[in-house]
From TrEMBL:
Span of domain C-type lectin: 100-227
Top-level taxon in the UniProt lineage: Eukaryota
Name used for this protein in its record: C-type lectin domain-containing protein
Keywords assigned by UniProt, alphabetized: Disulfide bond, Lectin
Organism of origin: Hemibagrus guttatus
Gene3D superfamilies named in the record: Mannose-Binding Protein A, subunit A (3.10.100.10)
């Protein structure tokens, strides 16, 4: 059998093409929102992980610094103990300093403001005393007959008391603030003498109490206690 083919004109071809496109339309491109969301989540997690790593790195640096400080302190004490054994004496502290355990304390005779006292303690290789327990409080209080600066202040943020080593005084820490029977207790940030308030802490008061903490104007001249 002979097959007959019909020749189609250009219009017929175009119509067939159009019909074909209608039956089989081009595939539309859709944005894959799941991939976008996943990317955002990954970015957020990467940012959080980076922040955590930075915090851990900072803490590691602080720990390393503390380790080096303790190591230096250990060697210092070891050398002094060796010197004691050689001389058969046990004076761990330099002349003019008094000892309690492995710490040495300097009780000044000069009167300076709080900042000057802090700086002089640093020059002597120590810092204004940081009192963290009852035995230490009782020891330093027993050595003084009048008010002395200690290393506590809220100069940076009012009401946030910080030691000179940048450690905050927390509610759970041992404190020795003066508590008045009349209800007026320390710290009271009294501003009648100094408009800036009372941002530095002294052991003792001008009125004679020497075993409690009092906030006072940092500009006042007082004796001070160094520790190392």
């Amino acid at each position: 059998m002979t097959r007959t083919f019909k020749l189609l004109g250009p219009q017929a071809v175009d119509n067939d093409y159009v019909n074909s496109q209608q039956l089989h339309p081009k595939t539309k491109k859709f944005t894959d929102h799941s991939k976008v969301v996943s990317t955002e989540i990954l970015r957020e997690r990467h940012g959080n992980a980076t922040t955590k790593l930075m915090v851990l790195k900072y803490k590691a640096t602080e720990t390393e610094q503390l380790k080096e400080m303790l190591k230096a302190k250990y060697h210092q004490v070891h050398e002094r103990l060796a010197a004691c054994n050689a001389k058969q004496t046990c004076a761990l502290c330099e002349e003019g300093w008094k000892s309690l355990g492995l710490k040495c304390y300097y009780f000044s005779t000069d009167k300076l403001n709080w900042t000057q006292g802090r700086d002089l303690c640093v020059e002597k290789g120590g810092h204004l005393v940081i009192i963290t327990n009852q035995p230490e409080q009782e020891f330093v209080a027993s050595q003084i007959g009048e008010t002395h600066w200690i290393g506590l202040n809220d100069l940076e943020t009012e009401g946030q008391w910080m030691w000179v080593n940048n450690h905050p005084l927390n509610e759970r820490d041992v404190t020795f603030w003066y508590r008045s029977p009349q209800g007026i207790s320390e710290p009271d940030t009294w501003k009648q003498e100094d408009p800036a308030g009372e941002n530095c802490v002294a052991l003792g008061h001008e009125e004679g109490i020497t075993n409690k903490w009092f906030d006072a104007s940092c500009h006042k001249l007082k004796q001070f206690i160094c520790e190392k």
